[in-house]
Amino acid sequence: MKKTKNDYKKYKFTYIKATVFTFFFCALFMKGYTPFERTGENYFHIQLNGQEVGTVGDREEIPEILVEARRNIASASDDMIFMDADLEVSGEEVLWGRVDDREDVLARMEAALRGRIHETTHRSYTMKVNEYIVNLASVDEVNALLQAAVDKYDSEDKFRVDLVYDNSREFSVLTTQMTDTSDAVEEDGFVRSGGIAAFLDGLGNADQEKEDKDFEDYDLGILSMDFAEKVEIVESYLPESQLTLLSDAIEQVTKDQETVSEYEVVSGDTLSEIAIKVNIPMDRLVEMNDSLESIDSTLHVGQKLIIMVPEPELSVTRVEENYYEEIYDADIIYIDRDDWYTYQTQVDREPSAGFRRVIADVSYVNDKEVSREILKEEVLMEAVAKIVERGTKIPPTYIKPISGGRQTSGFGRRSRPVRGASTNHKGVDWATPTGTPVYASCGGTVAKAGWASGYGYVVYINHEDGRQTRYGHLSKVLVKPGQSVKQGERIALSGSTGVSSGPHLHFEILINGVQVNPLQYLN
User: Fold this and answer.
1) How confident is the model at residue 19, as a pLDDT?
2) CATH 3.30.230.10: does it fit domain 406-520?
3) Model confidence at 36, in pLDDT bands (50, 70, 90)?
4) What is the dihedral sign for C-alpha 266, 270, 276, 279?
5) Distance CA 301, CA 289 (A)
6) What is the pTM of this model?
7) Strand runs (DSSP E) across 353-415, as ranges?
8) What b/e string do you get for 262-294 counting C-beta neighbours within 10 Å, with b at 16 or more?
9) Paired strand residues for 308
10) When you count CB atoms within 10 A of the terminal residue's CB, does the N or C end of the chain come out lower?
11) Fold for domain 317-393?
């Protein structure tokens, strides 16, 4: 019995020793278990975006794994990725517990982050030309867009668009550089472009070359090309919805757009001539300009008219060296006469056209010629210049002879308003109450003041430029023949005398004794 009791104690002691040893062994040597220490929380559960991603034994390790997971996702592309990272960590103190392998936790974190990507901004390029901005997916697309704008006018396929850094800008901004691929040569390890660069290098010998060159010695074709506007390109990150397809961008940039511009009226211009010059119908010009009441409105030198010009968003300039044969006119020779008015001219010699061969540098903006420099010409038949005498004296002006009034009859053909009236109206009628003051349209000398058949009471005034004005159907005449009057001076009161259908003023302007449309001469 005593032996059994001793054996029991021996076994019990051995069991205790084995248990203690086992715990010690597991704590120190078994992978995946944390040692038990009474130091607070030592076992941490991780949740990312609502998903269990693992357990670790060190809290400080968790943000490191999260940063690595985000970096792995971002490095997979050049795009900028925005994702949610709602991290929750709960800790506890345990005697032992199994932690997850770091790589497993990392993989599960990446999966949880990918499931919560809510926006991806792509690496892209923004191109700005004046106020026009377009976003493209790559620098290759920017190059393709710019090259398409050049190819529209580069019939010889000579010029290539290169993107270079703009040294005048503090930040990284790209701009354009045009390269003539047909003349590019390598010298001292550098590529030097020919074309216009070579042309500029030789300016010092230009005059000598003109003397020595024959027609066959010129290299005809496009000398240079460039963009008329400053082009700026910057790198950016944008969502796909803000990117423009390359085909759409090419159409936007190269297709002619209606652009607001101005036309300044010059001497001799008429609305019909301006309409032909700018290729806009006259009625459309009237709609676009508040200063024009109708197609018969009077124009003034220096007057600015709004016009719509078809131009692409990105304009291309080029210089072409061309050979042509042409019939040409010599420049008109003008002889100024200070005692004549500016509208008075006299042709002393009629012109005769000549014929010549020409080499010229022609400058274009898009398809519009803007200048021409003749480099060499051979005149086969000399042109005879036209000789014109012209006046320099500023003529007097004419104003509307009444204030207000409603126009009831214009100049020219009309229906007979009353028995005895003319169907070919020689002036302009304004309906106005009897007794309305009538003023001299221009200063001059009264030639007639009294009664005239058909006109009723009438006033005729002769003006220093040889013209005459007439004011008819008056109720009262306030001037006498031979009296000098100033522009705007009251000369009569309106009425309805003579052949008249009601109270109004009939007004005429005569040039060389012939009535003309007064509205074309009133200021």
Assistant:
1) 61
2) no
3) very low
4) positive
5) 16
6) 0.51
7) 354-365, 368-381, 387-393, 406-409, 412-413
8) ebebeeebebeebbeeeebebeebbeebeebee
9) 260
10) N
11) Resuscitation-promoting factor rpfb fold (2.20.230)
